[in-house]
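Preliminary data (for renewal application), iron/sulfur cluster complex.
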Amino acid sequence: MPGDRKSIEGGRRADLTSASSTAVDTSTSGFMKNVTWQLEVCNACRYCEGYCAVFPALERRRSCSPGDIQYLANLCFDCRACFYACMYAPPHEFGVNIPQAFARVRRESYEQYSMPAAARRLFGRQGRAATVTMIGAGLFFLAGVALTGDIRRLLGLQLGEGAFYRVVPYALMFLPALIFSLAALGALVSGVVRFVGRTHGRPRDFVSLSALREAAEDTFALRYLRGGGAGGCTYPEEKVSLARAVFHQMVMYGFLEALLSTIIAFIQQDILGWLPPYPLLSWPVVLGTIGGVAMIVGSAGLITLKVRSDRAPADQRAIEMDYVFLVLILLVNASGLLLLALRETALMGVLLIVHLATVFGLFFSIAYGKFAHFLYRYAALVQNRIELSRANSDGR
Ligand code: HEM
Ligand code: SF4
Ligand code: SF4
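Predicted structure:
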């Protein structure tokens, strides 16, 4: 837990005031200098060391390279406890604002490491790029349906085994989705490998089974969104609350259930030869429905919290990226559940195209949007576990 604030103010303030406060420079190099300086202040102060993994990781370093700062930023869970506790936060002349600085560093790290380089411009245009992807995918499927048969099938009633594929042929639905999702995942993985190379060093030193497992436990428990034992994080405002962690887990576990549902459907269809639509009480439909409802409730809850959230410790462009991701999750799941509810009506064909288009929007955010955070954050958690085990074995 944090140390006694009064003794730190009395004991260390004199040291800190000798550091020169860098005027806020919004250029990337000026910004990184300012973040480095803020972290020097933190390393001298150490008041927040009990809140999360970031401050102990900072204390393990004498100085911070740009790679170290990117690592620490991806290790920060944006719980904001250090902002509300900080005696050097604005309006203090030092202007220490770690959650805001780290939100920008995280956003810029997704952009800097994304592949190919030409796609980096998409980061400044999240909303437009996701919309264009969805419209493009919708038009692609409409054209595909028209070219492979009769477009009037879209408005006809299709029932029984293989009903979806009588509207959009299987190859037309499956191949573009496979290619687009693998390309997005490949772009994300290659970016994260470069991130690890920059923040950690040789990727082979990164492979530690115990660190991989412990980092997975940190993820599934969302350990650092709990405010260092305070019973929640200071989000959307200064009052401690578990709301963000609970809604996040609904989205994350809902997503994992939907993924499991897709894998089971794939096995049923491509190995066992049972074509969809599947009965309401089958594994793919039950898991997909529970996951879909959880994601809708979770993302709607996160949007509501974000609307109310304190802007002082936030980065405006990161907020925009979050909104685009949250709306994409809502659209995919709302259109999926509507398709399930109306699959035995004449609206099925149109809803199928709308749902497929939104899924492509979500694929886009794997490589060029907020979805990327899951792999960057996991990599940072693994590195943290590796450092902790080294520190333990060195007796530090
Ligand atoms: C390694 C796995 C993951 C970790 C450690 C993680 C952690 C976090 C953290 C700390 C935040 C809050 C800070 C921020 O906005 O960046 C966040 C935001 C978010 N995460 Fe995750 N996440 C993971 C995986 C996922 C997955 C698989 C999904 C869903 C598909 C997801 C959905 C979201 C959403 C929607 C937000 C935005 C929340 C908001 O705007 O308040 N996360 N994640
Ligand atoms: S955020 Fe503020 S209170 Fe916390 S360690 Fe840094 S300078 Fe100290
Ligand atoms: S915002 Fe929370 S997780 Fe991030 S550095 Fe501050 S205390 Fe740690």
